[in-house]
């Protein structure tokens, strides 16, 4: 994700902390570090069928319910990277001499538009004889946390202190970012 995008494109509440941390790192030019951007975790696309250490959370695709919710027109690419690939990249980076570490690195697993992604998911589920529901939520609605719910998120409410309200905030923020190109890293 590109945390340097304008706040209106990425209304992610911890964003300010990330930006302050980056400013602090920049004040220490002799400190060795590498900022790593990896897009959106691909693990979330295959839940509940993919092995992952992440808690289930359904954004864009709900394969079990054969439903997808796309923010905006769905034509903006999103980069998806599996957590195992992120771990391999970080491990390989730490094996390198620190003088070779880049200040910034991007891990790009798969770049695909949301429409193309959902079309692929729909094709797979149709093979099983199931219809796939696709909904486009207007970005204006998503910015106001008015999002179409994915059924498999109901059990996820328990992960958050304010339940559905917290989850809606997280998902709507991510959807706004996807529609604005925040997850189209290069």
From TrEMBL:
Q: Sorted alphabetically, which keywords does the UniProt record give?
A: NADP, Oxidoreductase
Q: Which SUPFAM superfamilies match?
A: NAD(P)-binding Rossmann-fold domains
Task: Tell me which domain of life the UniProt entry assigns to the organism this sequence originates from.
Answer: Eukaryota
Q: Which InterPro entries match?
A: NAD(P)-bd_dom_sf (IPR036291), NmrA/Isoflavone_reductase-like (IPR051609)
> Recorded GO terms, molecular function?
oxidoreductase activity
| PANTHER family, per database record | NMRA-LIKE DOMAIN-CONTAINING PROTEIN, NMRA-LIKE FAMILY PROTEIN
Protein family according to the UniProt entry: Belongs to the NmrA-type oxidoreductase family. Isoflavone reductase subfamily.
Q: What is this protein called?
A: Uncharacterized protein
């Amino acid at each position: 994700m590109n945390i340097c995008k304008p706040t209106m494109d990425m209304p992610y509440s911890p964003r300010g902390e990330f930006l302050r941390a980056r400013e602090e790192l920049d004040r220490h030019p002799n400190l060795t570090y590498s900022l790593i951007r990896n897009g959106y975790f691909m693990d979330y696309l295959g839940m509940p069928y993919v092995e992952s250490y992440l808690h289930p959370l359904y954004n864009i695709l709900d394969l079990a319910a054969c439903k997808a919710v796309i923010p905006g027109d769905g034509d903006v690419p999103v980069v998806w990277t599996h957590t195992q690939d992120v771990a391999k990249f970080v491990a390989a980076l730490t094996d390198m001499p620190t003088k070779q570490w880049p200040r910034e690195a991007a891990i790009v697993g798969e770049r695909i538009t949301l429409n193309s992604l959902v079309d692929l998911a729909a094709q797979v589920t149709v093979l099983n004889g199931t219809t796939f529901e696709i909904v486009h939520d207007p970005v204006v609605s998503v910015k106001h946390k008015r999002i179409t719910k994915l059924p498999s998120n109901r059990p996820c409410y328990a992960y958050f202190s304010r339940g559905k309200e917290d989850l809606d905030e997280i998902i709507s923020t991510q959807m706004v970012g996807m529609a604005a190109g925040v997850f189209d890293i290069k």
